[in-house]
Amino acid sequence: MEATGISHIAVCVRDLDKSLAFYRDILGMRVDFDEVQDTTSSGLPSVYAHSRKTRRSAHVWFGPGPATPSLVLTSHPGEDSDGSPIKLDQVGISHFSFTVRDVKALADELVSKGVELAAPLEAFTAPDGRVSSIFVYDPDGILLQFDLLGNLPDHDHSLLPDPTEG
After folding, report:
1. What is the pairing mode between strands 95-100 and 143-148?
2. What's the whole-model pTM score?
């Protein structure tokens, strides 16, 4: 098999409106799709831990048009979702990460908007004052990481779009 990429990352949340307020309004992601779907047919009942009647699904991404991977945020209106977010040393998808051009500026912006960093900013600050990575929690306690664009090894950053170009 040769995969051409990751199409999306799906995240089940307790309250989709709260999550959209975070991902859309605070992080600036765009919403492409937001609707309630029937989950009683097709293969969906086979991939749920509990019987669910519906799910609300919203697709969000950064940038002016659909991008991959996108996030698919789901909730189950009128039903409680169970489970808890995991940490980096637990089995499962522990976090996802976005590359940004200025981690320190983003950290300052997020803190000004009421987002709590997973650790004090000083913990993420190198002796030279550079901040190359931070972690924050979304409204459900799911861990998100933001990395400095040029800080990732073994990646061809020339393929990434320049957000200053329109």
Report:
1. parallel
2. 0.82
